[in-house]
Amino acid sequence: MEKEKVAHSSFWVNFFNSPTEETDLKNSLKTIPLFNDLTKGDLTSLIKIIHNRTFVAGEFIFHQGDPGIGLYIIRDGDVEIERENAQRVKNVLATFSKGDFFGELALVDGEKRSASAIAKTSCKVSVIFKPDLDEFIEKYPRKGIKILTGISSIIALRLRKLNEDYFDLQYNVLEEKGK
Known about the structure:
Elements: H1 19-30, H2 40-47, E1 50-55, E2 60-62, E3 70-76, E4 78-84, E5 90-97, E6 101-102, E7 116-119, E8 123-129, H3 130-139, H4 141-178
Antiparallel strand pairs: 1-8, 2-7, 3-6, 3-8, 4-5, 4-7
Helix pairs in contact: 1-2, 3-4
C-alpha cells in the first residue's frame, strides 16, 4: 500500500523547532502578567495550544473590524496598533516589541477588533486563539481561572491608564482655554 501524501499548511504552525524555542516561549510567558500565577506544568500545558506565525514588515496581523479571535505575544520584532476614525484619519495608539502582547480583549468578548495591528519590522508572534483557550479552560478550570484573573488585571490596568490619560488631556485643554 502506497503512503498517502498529505499537504499541511504552515500558516498557523503549532510546533517548536527545538527545545530551546519551547524554553524561550515559557520564559516569555512567565514575564507576561496574564500568566504570572501559572506553574511550569501549567505553562507546559498552555504551550500545546499556542500557534506561531511570522510576519514581514508592513504586513497586517489583523485589521480594524476583523473578528477578535486571539491574543498575540510578540516573540521578536515590532508591531504598531493603529485606529482609523470615521474621517479615515489613522492614529497610532501603541507600538509593541518583544515580550509585549496585544489583543487580550478577544479572549474575553470575541468582539470585532477596535484597531489594526501591523508588523513594523519582520516579527515572530505566538497566538492563543479564543476557541483553544475556551477548551483549555474547560479541561483545566483552575489554570483557566488563573489566566482569566490575569486578563482581568491587565484590562483593569489599561483602563485605569486610559482614564488617567483622558483626564490629563481634559485638564490640559481647560488650562489652554483659561490662558
